Amino acid sequence: MSGVGSIDKALRVAPPDRLVETLDAYLSATHGAKNSTVWLADYRSTTLSPAGADADAPESVGDQLGPATRAFASQTPVLEAREGQAFARLHLPVTAWGERVGVLSVGLDAARLTSERPRLEELAESFAVALAAAYRRTDRYHMDRRRTGRLTMAAEMQWDLLPARGYDQPGVKFAGQLEPAYAVCGDHFDWSVNGDWLTVTALNGMGTGLDAALLSTLAVNAMRNARRSIPAGQSSPGDLADQAVLAADAIFSQYGGARHVATLLLSLHMGTGELRMIDAGSPRMLLVRGGQVRDVDLDPQLPLGMFGDTRYVEERTQLEPGDRLFVVSDGVHAAVRQNEPTFGERELSRAIRSTRLQPPAEAISSVMRSLRDYHAGAELADDALIICLDWSPRADP
């Protein structure tokens, strides 16, 4: 038996910490692979590390890193095959619903490449879904991916809280990134897809260190509880006001107004482009349309949890096909160097314009590089959050 169905079954019955070995054995037995390497992206999505046994023998996979990195960055397969040679290697993006997990590199006889390649590309997609699920059930892949640094306790909480760092479906592409990746504290984002609605929240928790992470954790879970507690039929998944009220009440009941969370709440109807928004002391939002970048000015409302019995009012706008939204926290737009304009005043719009041909994940990486350049290589003085969202009408089926 061969094909995607059989690898799906093999991965389902394998222990979650043995997916890499299960995949390697399957590739050898079913596709005639000579070897395979699974590469996992680090928390910055800038470095790939080999998983499994290959992690202990980097010299055996070092020559694969360049092509694997190209496959990860471009999100397209990269082929290593020289004319007249009997061996070829195919590097395939491992991506689940738009979240870039890593890369699968497969070495096989060049003569089998044409027949095997379509099945290998489908197999990489199945493996991505299984690997994304396994992250919740074993520490093994967390340990493999974090060789470039150790997470602080606050960062551990923030990364573990994320549903995923990206989403990609017809009509909508979305990605987000937190920095400094290994020491992030209070900045955070969350998202959920329910029917036609994509709901996104961007948060800037008050305070520093573990206290800020605990506050953001409470805020994210309060928002999730609010989304899931509104009875079906009472409001659509895109309605934000009731969600904001329930979340604000939960935070206020815990801290009594002593601590609060600056939050931007967004709901996008993925079919029509209707965008609903609440600026509760929010991070900053910018719209890219027709090559121009402009701020989206919203009516400021109270941060979540500042006072009891706070009510919130939605604002609405209509996106146009090809629109791009950037959401950035104050660690980005208000970043400052001595005796110079802020990053938001000086570099942000230019950095965003330069990403017009890049997908959201790469666009975020480019803006983050510009922010690091602005800081001249020094560690960021404040948490930095960047979200990028692209919308276009779905094609008719």
Automatic annotation (TrEMBL):
Keyword Transmembrane: no
Keywords: Hydrolase
Keyword match Hydrolase: yes
Gene3D superfamilies the record matches: PPM-type phosphatase domain (3.60.40.10)
Domain of life: Bacteria
Positions of the PPM-type phosphatase domain: 169-391
InterPro entries per the UniProt record, alphabetical: Bact_Sigma-Reg, PPM-type-like_dom_sf, PPM-type_phosphatase-like_dom
One Pfam family hit: SpoIIE
Protein name as annotated: PP2C family protein-serine/threonine phosphatase
Annotated organism of origin: Dactylosporangium darangshiense
Taxonomic lineage of the native organism: Bacteria, Bacillati, Actinomycetota, Actinomycetes, Micromonosporales
